[in-house]
Design a protein that fits this description.
two-stranded antiparallel sheet, transmembrane helix, 19 helices, mainly alpha, disordered N terminus, serine-type endopeptidase activity, elongated, UBA domain-containing protein, Rhomboid-like fold, 2 domains, about 5% strand, UBA-like_sf
């Protein structure tokens, strides 16, 4: 569990008020339906397709989406929502809320259509399918973006099968959707809704966007209650997107490397040495200058990488990345292998090498 809770940052809900509100609401709803005085409401959370189609009791469907009944679903769902806060930082809270709103409506509509078709075709295993309670439409659409947009880094192998840093997140989702046929249909509807939103099917991103006045209203009311300040662990405010976070982390790493080199040089200069010559001092100065040049080139390379580009990695840029990792103390062969494994993402390659160094 610690792997998920520490992904990409340790700053909690910084710039993720919508995620924070979802987790608070999920916890309160689960607690409420297990309080004896409200326990009678639990029977309304199980919805039959006939209630929606023939009795037009759509309110039952909406009500059933508010809360999970089982503890394992609450725990797994909360962990997934907490980890997926990275998308709120990437999209922005307004766009993230619009995404949840649009995919929730689309997911519920797809679920009703699928269950009704199975019921109408008189397929025996699906005659008594109950639409399961729980906010599946808030979780599974995000897996579409998670699959395509978040790179995977192989951590280890089990019986020849690669285990990546995304494996546990997939297993949590599988745990939720494998409870019954109904939960599988809900999860499938959410995945399809996320894919349709991602490709902007029928301009859904524009048609179902939350109005600015609604966003401002929530920001002025609930936004102040759910806002989280900057992380006390970070000396600078953390960027709202993964790209900004990685850029800030690498700049901070560069500063730490330079400071470490400077301390090492001052320590050597304070030590009495026999035969210390002016030539040796010039050599040390040239080494420091070369390191500064490499760091400057790395900043320029990352700036170019953030711009749209076509084609493979420039050999000169690749060599700069390898040399930069060598300057950090890693072996050249290991640096090349890590860069290849991470698709030449310097931050991911550094993480791989640091993990390998820590486990050795």
């Amino acid at each position: 569990m610690a792997t998920i809770l520490s992904q990409h940052s340790t700053t909690g809900f910084y710039k993720a008020p919508v995620t924070k509100g979802l987790l608070v609401g999920l916890s309160l709803a689960y607690t409420a339906i297990h309080v004896p005085i409200l326990a009678h409401l639990r029977k309304h959370l199980h919805v039959q397709i006939t209630d929606i189609i023939y009795k037009h009791e759509v309110w039952k469907l909406l009500m059933s989406r508010f809360a999970f009944i089982h503890t394992k679903d609450v725990v797994c769902g909360a962990l997934i929502i907490y980890y997926f806060r990275i998308f709120e930082r990437r999209f922005g809270s307004h766009a993230f809320a619009s995404f949840l709103f649009a995919t929730s409506l689309l997911s519920m509509a797809l679920e009703v259509i699928i269950v009704y078709c199975l019921h109408a075709w008189a397929m025996d295993p699906f005659q008594q399918v109950v639409m399961p309670p729980g906010p599946y439409m808030l979780i599974f659409p995000l897996y579409a973006y998670y699959f395509f947009d978040i790179p995977r880094v192989t951590r280890t192998y089990i019986m020849g099968i690669p285990v990546t840093d995304k494996t546990l997140t997939y297993l949590l989702g599988l745990q939720i959707c494998s409870s019954s046929i109904g939960t599988f249909i809900s999860a499938l509807s959410g995945l399809v809704a996320g894919l349709l939103y991602r490709v902007n099917f029928l301009r859904i991103q524009q048609l179902l966007k939350l109005p600015n006045i609604v966003a401002k209203l929530f920001d002025k009311t609930l936004g102040r209650l759910l806002d989280s300040g900057d992380s006390p662990e970070s000396p600078i405010p953390l960027g709202a997107t993964l790209e900004l976070q990685r850029q800030q982390q690498m700049e901070l790493l560069e500063q730490q490397i330079i400071l470490s080199r400077m301390r090492e040089m001052r320590r050597r200069q304070r030590q009495p040495r026999v035969g210390a010559t002016l030539e040796l001092q010039r050599q040390q100065q040239m080494e420091l200058l070369e390191q500064q040049i490499i760091l400057s080139r790395m900043r320029e390379m990352r700036r170019r990488q953030r711009q749209p580009h076509v084609g493979a990695m420039n050999p000169e840029d690749e060599e700069l990345q390898v040399k930069f990792l060598e300057e950090m103390g890693f072996e050249r062969a290991s640096a090349r292998h890590a860069l290849h494994s991470s698709n030449y993402n310097l931050e991911a390659a550094t993480s791989i090498l640091l993990r390998e160094a820590g486990s050795s």
